[in-house]
Design a protein that fits this description.
93 residues; mainly alpha; globular
């Protein structure tokens, strides 16, 4: 049992790293970049909750929820980094 938990943690860390690199190089799709931050946060919460319910039905609740959480956290952190960079440049007061 412990081996499976360690294996899943390693896979989630690899997924997080790959997604961070991918989004840093490619950026967000224009449709996702145009969404207001509050709707992005709400959508992320709904996506994670939906993955929890779907995972319970498919008996893969923990891995599916972990993947959804990591994916949405990367997108949210990228949006916050962009907003912070604009604040530093003086574009947003």
């Amino acid at each position: 049992m412990t081996f499976l938990v360690i294996k899943m943690m390693i896979l989630v860390i690899i997924l997080f790293s790959v997604l961070q690199i991918f989004i840093a190089k490619k950026g967000l799709p224009p449709q996702l970049a145009a969404v207001k931050l509050r709707y992005l946060l709400l959508g992320s919460i709904l996506l994670i909750a939906g993955c929890m319910l779907l995972g319970i039905l498919l008996n893969i609740a923990v891995p599916l929820t972990a993947v959804a959480t990591v994916t949405t956290s990367v997108v949210i952190s990228y949006r916050f980094r962009i907003s912070y960079a604009e604040i530093e440049k003086g574009k947003i007061i």
